[in-house]
Amino acid sequence: MAIKVIGLIQLNDPEAFEEYRSQVGDTVGLHQGKIISRGSFNTFLWNELQCDSFSAVVELEFPDLEHSESWANSPEYQSLLAIRSKAMKLTLFSVSL
């Protein structure tokens, strides 16, 4: 069963974000994942969980949970955490569809 990984992004530094974005796709591909879509946040229709507002969203897909977890914990992705922290605040979660 494919696993979707959803990222909710609160942008802090557009230049750092572009640097991160130019490198993260390669790390995803190393773990048989792909970037499905990227988009901008518009508005909440309901927000009963009281989520903080965010700027953008990204959707990744991996063949299974193990591949998504190995990507998130990989040395390649971990090497991007410093630039990611400068670029944004990120909530990242996986879902089975």
Topology of helices and strands:
Blueprint: E1 3-11, H1 14-29, E2 34-40, E3 56-62, H2 65-72, H3 75-78, H4 81-87, E4 88-96
Antiparallel strand pairs: 1-3, 1-4, 2-3
Helix pairs in contact: 1-4
Please, could you describe this protein's structure?
The chain is α+β, with helices and mostly antiparallel strands. It contains four helices and four strands. Strands 2-3-1-4 form a four-stranded antiparallel β-sheet. Helix 1 runs antiparallel to helix 4. The protein is globular. The chain starts with a strand and ends with a strand. 14% of the residues are buried.
Strand tally: 4
Sheet having the most strands: 4 strands, antiparallel
Succession of helices and strands = EHEEHHHE
Q: Could you list the spans in which at least 5 consecutive residues all have pLDDT below 50?
A: none
Secondary structure class reads alpha+beta
> Treating each run of at least 4 consecutive H or I residues as one helix, how many helices?
4
The residue fraction in helices comes out at 25-40%
- Spatial ordering of strands, largest sheet: 2-3-1-4
